Amino acid sequence: MNLRAPAILVAARPHGETASIARMLTEEHGLVAGYVAGGRGRQLRPVMIPGNLVEVELRSKSESQLPFAKLELVESRGPWLTEPLPASAISWLCAVTATALPERNPYPALYQALSAVLGAVCEAPSARGWLPALVSFEVLLLRELGYGGERPEHDDDLQAMLAKFDRLEGPLARYLLADKRGDVIAARHLLRERLARMLS
Fold first, then answer.
1. Partners of residue 13 on adjacent β-strands
2. Structural domain boundaries of the chain?
3. Closest Cα partner for 134 from 107, 103, 158?
4. Which of 19, 73, 99, 191 could link 88 by a cystine bridge, Cβ 3.0 to 4.6 Å?
5. CB–CB of 89/191 below 8 Å?
6. One cellular component GO annotation, for this chain's record (predicted)?
7. Are 58 and 37 in contact (CB under 8 A)?
8. Cα–Cα distance between 125 and 65 in angstroms, integer?
9. pLDDT at 181 over 70
10. What is the CATH number that goes with domain 3-75?
11. CB distance 93 to 25 below 8 Å
């Protein structure tokens, strides 16, 4: 696999002493993974934040080899990691995307939707501005992977949106996350707890 494309970094895990394995969602190639030399070093650490928009270059000698990846930062989500609610939303969105999607299957609608909802999380003054987009992304994720789901309508009532958010947990856990390693749904539970504090 040899490609250069805009991407959303959705996961990064340590590999060896200084490297990282990055998983990125691209519009035309879907979810791709790559070995990032020095990914845990001082220079690349700010780039390796899930949610970041990057330009990725992947190169491999064979289809069976994990490609080497070079990442250039386009837009950072780092400033929002100190804000508990946006940080939780970004964490959940990236975790469910990295876990649920098969590699190298293009989902252009999901790429565009994830880019839009991450932008909304970072730009809206409160969760009222981005929760409908997050719920719509979850529904789209279920639909794109063949599990149906109605397209939710925007609702300005936060309680109603939270009820829709709650109803989606069952299908997400049952269809997309049941056989996956790691307690990905825990990231959603943390987000739900922080959303609940908006009502108290």
1. 21
2. 3-75, 78-196
3. 158
4. 191
5. yes
6. bacterial nucleoid
7. no
8. 44
9. no
10. 2.40.50.140
11. no
Q: CA angle 15-40-96, nearest 5°?
A: 70
* 88-107 confidence digits (pLDDT tens): 999 999 999 999 999 999 99
Rounded Cα gap, residues 74 and 137, in angstroms: 22
Other Cβ atoms closer than 10 A to 8:
28
The pair of structure tokens assigned to 154 is 């925007």
Q: Which residue has the tokens 């250039």?
A: 72
Task: Report the pLDDT averaged over residues 154-183.
Answer: 85
Residues 6+ apart with CB under 8 A from 163: none
Locate tokens 């990231």: which residue?
A: 187
Give the pairing of strands 68-75 and 53-59: antiparallel
Q: How far apart are CA 29 and CA 80, in angstroms?
A: 28
Return the CATH number of 78-196, one of 2.60.40, 4.10.1110, 1.20.1440, 1.10.8.
Answer: 1.20.1440
Query: What is the chain written as a DSSP string?
Result: --EEEEEEEEEEEEETTTEEEEEEEETTTEEEEEEETTTTSTTTTTT--TT-EEEEEEE-SSTTSPPEEEEEEEE--GGGGGSHHHHHHHHHHHHHHHHHSPBT---HHHHHHHHHHHHHHHHSSSGGGTHHHHHHHHHHHHHHTT---PPPPP-S-HHHHHHHHHHHHHHIIIIISTT-SS-THHHHHHHHHHHHTTT-
Rg (C-alpha) for the chain, rounded Å, is 17
Tokens read off for 172 = 């997400």
